[in-house]
# Entry
Amino acid sequence: MQKFIYMEYDHRVVEQKWKQKWQIDGVYKVSNDFSLPKYYILDMFPYPSGSGLHVGHPLGYIASDIMSRYKRMSGFNVLHPMGFDAFGLPAEQYAIQTGVHPAVSTAENMERYRDQLHNIGLNYDWDREVITCDPSYYKWTQWIFIQLFEHYYCLNSNQAKPIKDLIQVFSHSGSLGCAAFGQDELNFTDEEWNQKGEKERADILMNYRLAYRKISFVNWCEALGTVLANDEIKDGVSERGGHPVEKKPMMQWALRISAYSERLLQDLNTVEWSESLKTMQRNWIGKSTGAQVFFPLQGRSDTLEVFTTRPDTIFGVSFLVVAPEHPLLKSLCTADRDQSVINYLNQVNKKTDRDKQSDVKNMTGVFTGSYATHPFTEQKISIWVSDYVLIEYGTGAIMAVPGHDLRDQAFANKFELPIIQVVDQSNETGASPEEKRGIMIRSEFLNGLQVQEAIVKAIEQIVAKKIGKEKVQYRMRDANFSRQRYWGEPFPVYYNSEGVCVAMDYSELPLELPRLEKIEVSKNGKSPLAEAQDWVHFAEGKTRETDTMPGYAGSSWYFLRYMDPKNTEEFASSSSLDYWQDVDLYIGGTEHAVGHLMYSRFWHKFLYDLGYIKTVEPFKRLVNQGMIQGMIESLALIKDSKPPKFISHELVSQYDEELIAYIPVHKDFVKNYGTPEAHLDQPGIEEFIKWRPDFKEALFVNSLESKTAHDLNSEFKIRTKTEVGKMSKRYHNVVNPDDVIAEYGADCFRMYEMFLGPLEDSKPWDTKGISGVSGFLKKYHQLFFNDNKELALIGEAPTPEMLKVLHTCIKKLRADLDAMSYNTSVSAFMICVNELRKLNCKNREVLLTLNKLLAPFAPFITEEIYQISGGLGSVHHQEYPIHNESFLESDSINYPVSVNGKKRYEWTVPKAMTKEELESSVLQLDEIKKWTENQNIKKIILVPGRMINIVI
RNA sequence: ACCGAAAUGGCGGAACUGGUAGACGCGCUGGACUCAAAAUCCAGUGACCUUUAAAGUCGUGUGGGUUCGAGUCCCACUUUCGGUACCA
# Structure
């Protein structure tokens, strides 16, 4: 064998070499051989933020990388792609602040991300990269949008159908033949339809399209003159400047995901996701069965429609409540109540959703002045308005049963309204008033029935009286699909002179985003796109939509595009869709547990309905990686203060919590970052106002003095609030992996991230233990060489001890890989290397098998050793080792011997001993005798191979 | 407020279906090598009691329960993290 003289292992040189060579040799190119078994493993693609990839991203990426290498070494054709979720708000804000166009900054950020991902040694096939802001990609996002616009949901066949079919139905039999899922129940004849004008017909069709327009509410900030994302609001005020935010109704695009509620619910049973995640999705969909009931309004001919899950408690109704946005509210207000209702609405409008949610103890509301009639008892029932009723759920109105609903009860208590018990729960110990247990009382025809029976009977009577019917209600609402932003996919539609919305022809796609010279804060609630006059008014009498699509548009189907990313004729060819089918393993953060995953499932089902794909679910198995957390530092700002006033954190307790908003501060400005002593000093404050010029004139207050940035002295300190939380661009606390890799190498970084703990757990970032992994890799490398630094592998037969050590490790690794328990894999490798060192093992067969075993975890060092030891091709294309059970056997067993469950002795016995022999000889042991002497032995519990317990 | 998850030495964590709690690593302590330091190697390391050892007692967020036996199962609570649209 040729002697190889090695220098010290230099990860910089070795990693650089293999990064290039792998690319040139196409080691990670996905095979087009459709005869091999496929394995599709996907990472949630990142948003290319300006702060670069942070140490949290790679946690999942490394895990999927290990899995895809393992699967490839096990004979699968592996699809493991990467791309960018490249449209988004931060690039637009950056453009507003600096004038750099989002396309430019995004391209730069992506370049940086690619480098960073490359440095980690991830085995992506970059030829399949997908970028959501690339017109060749969003052409197909727009194409799917048009499909959604041109389809409705057919309730007969339970699938999407072309809107053309619905038009046919309307012109032949009017709304009578309509089995379409819609917002409102519309009634018209074929004759009426045929007489309607273009605009009226278009309005009717909007009620059924899967992509449609409706009035929804946005966060409006008057002071900034713009619409804000939830992300931009903190503690009820705008993050920029701390201005008040209110709700404003606007015409917006929405997607009718609610049509798919039942299928999204049912098909959860077919996927291999964690139970907790499926539970979260089920709760989000929130199916409930109940009744719709119409209460006649007094003094007028119409009714108020409510939804209830407890029709059995109808005799317990003591008042009705409508949501503040309810369409009938205005007409329900009597003249004398008008002003108090208006005052109330003003007050409600200022509260953010989260405020309302966290503040349920504090019930608010006012009486409208109107009454309804109880449909069974004919009693007069007062109608109230309160923000604890939501316009978006059910009918936006409820029948309040304070006896059996705790929120209704709180409301009744506060406003001294009657509380009527209608379920006798005296025989139901421990039952809460809301539980569906007990016997009906004070309820006429329901008296004496059990709650479950009463629900059925009540619905029967409601139907018989023609005042309502049984109804299934879903909590999930339609998704708002409009953003008043520039940096997103343009809607491929225009409005004609009648104001009718028309989809563009497929041949005209993509509709490219016009290049704006200057991007400014949106005005009057309109997107900055409205400034592109030539683009908006592109033809006589036609105007384009100026809203753009939200972030989840591009991410709802990208996993399909990876299958055939360069196709210009279709979003992906049917042959590639048929072969790759769906994602076998999807890894990503829990923060997407509902949003992204729900929308993707919806789009996937829609494309299934249209016949383009053959699977009903996109992600077969899904694993949520935990979050690598960071420290969030923020300054306490007094809301609405002019000039803005920041107070040191120790002073916060002196103020009402409601008055304080926390403004995140970049971690680099903070002294004693991440500790209780974290603060800004003079240079820190100067950096802070340079970074946030809107706070240039701000006042900084600590317990001694109050200063502006201009009259600071070097002693001045202002404490920041320190908390553990997301590492995110929002909190400016991102730690990049680059420095870690430069110092320790990618193999070490990869293994250290895995070694931190279980993949699913969240943990704060800390490099404390990294030297342990680094030391392991050094020891590993030394294993292959002698003291003269020559490759020192010996080609003789391995000893049984060596084989036992190796095969113990292989067995553990196989089990860990399948369970994705990579932290214990790293321990197993450490144990194996420690043992082989003790055995002074230089055996060629043993060490080169171990090298293949380690390859998915440490791709560089293993490739280098593989090459040095004379291997052909790449180690990453070798077969993954399989363990041989016969090497693991041992002829003795170690038993813990307990007395009354307390371990008293460790006992090593020959494996051949029978249960009877063990039971008799265990009592003869001196160490046991001393516990059992003069005691009555009740029984001996002996689990063979496990433990012995003597009960006295 | 609701949904979901987590809590084990000084620290990150291990413990398969209830069966030897603390694997592995960091840190710390002592030793070897060195003029010295770094690096490396060897040994020890949950707390308490004890001069030490042996032996023992306590110990997996808190309080109860089931069991021969509970970190693991059940009930109630506390704290932290993620999500959220007060879901009738």
In short: Confidence is low (pLDDT under 50) at residues 1-6 of chain A.
